[in-house]
Write a structure and sequence with these properties.
- The structure holds 2 protein chains of 2 kinds.
- By secondary structure, chain A is mainly β.
- Chain A has no helices and 11 strands.
- In chain A, the strands form 2 sheets. In chain A, strands 2, 4, 5, 6, 9, 10 and 11 form a 7-stranded mixed sheet that branches. Chain A has a 4-stranded antiparallel sheet with strand order 1-3-8-7, with no helix packed on it.
- In chain B, 35% of the residues are buried.
- Chain B has no helices and 10 strands.
- Chain B is mainly β.
- In chain B, the strands form 2 sheets. In chain B, strands 1-3-8-7-6 form a 5-stranded antiparallel sheet, with no helix packed on it.
- Chain B starts with a strand and ends with a strand.
- Classes of the chains: A mainly beta, B mainly beta.
- At the A-B interface, strand 5, strand 9 and strand 10 of A face strand 4 and strand 5 of B.
């Protein structure tokens, strides 16, 4: 298996632009998670899906952030408009079911200038 | 929410040494995972360990859920063990709360 695949690996954008991050979970995994990592706040959960349904989005910072999972093999995290404070590494992870460990993707390093 | 405290925050070892990393958490948990973030930023799942002890090569982990702590033991450390080790208890649903991590440096 190719693991959890995220794209792009790096993204540099100007403040105010829309940013879309993509994630392909491991085939057969039914839970998908979006995390953000910063020096100040560490690793924090933004949202997670179970069987393509958003279960907990309480970590989404504000209305500028949105996430979708249109099918079992694809999810997006969108920031519109982006701000410099959104600069971070965004990780996607998936797991088989409750009771199994997470597998993380390689992350997307986002820089908003 | 749950509080997660990892110790020590930083650890420097000579290759071949052994070490124990500790994770204390403030609430009952459904399970707990340990991760290694290598110097390139990749997060690798080491253990899924709600209770008891598990071993994987030179690494082992023990979770005592009733006392709200978990330990990660690294034996015969190698330079490739360098990186940050995170403990992440799971509370409601599948939510993981990550500690601040232990930064491990293994010198040759």
């Amino acid at each position: 298996d190719a693991g959890v695949i995220q794209s792009p690996r790096h993204e540099v954008t100007e403040m105010g632009q829309e940013v879309t991050l993509r994630c392909k979970p491991i085939s057969g995994h039914n839970s998908l998670f979006w995390y953000r990592q910063t020096m100040m706040r560490g690793l924090e959960l933004l949202i997670y899906f179970n069987n393509n349904v958003p279960i907990d989005d309480s970590g989404m910072p504000e209305d500028r952030f949105s996430a979708k999972m249109p099918n079992a093999s694809f999810s997006t995290l969108k920031i519109q408009p982006s701000e410099p404070r959104d600069s971070a590494v965004y990780f996607c992870a998936s797991s088989l079911a409750h009771g199994y460990g997470y597998t993380f993707g390689s992350g997307t390093r986002l820089t908003v200038v | 929410g749950i509080q997660v405290e990892q110790s020590p925050p930083d650890l420097i070892l000579q290759e071949g040494a052994n070490s124990t990393l500790r994770c204390n958490f403030s609430d009952s948990v459904n399970n707990l995972q340990w991760f290694h973030q290598n110097p390139w930023g990749q997060l690798i799942n080491l253990f899924y360990i709600p209770s008891g002890t598990k071993q994987n090569g030179r690494l082992s982990a023990t979770t005592v859920a009733t006392e709200r702590y978990s330990l990660l033991y690294i034996s015969s450390s190698q330079t490739t063990d360098s990186g940050v080790y995170f403990c992440a208890p799971e509370t409601s649903g599948s939510r993981l709360t990550f500690g601040e991590g232990t930064q491990l440096t293994v010198n040759p």
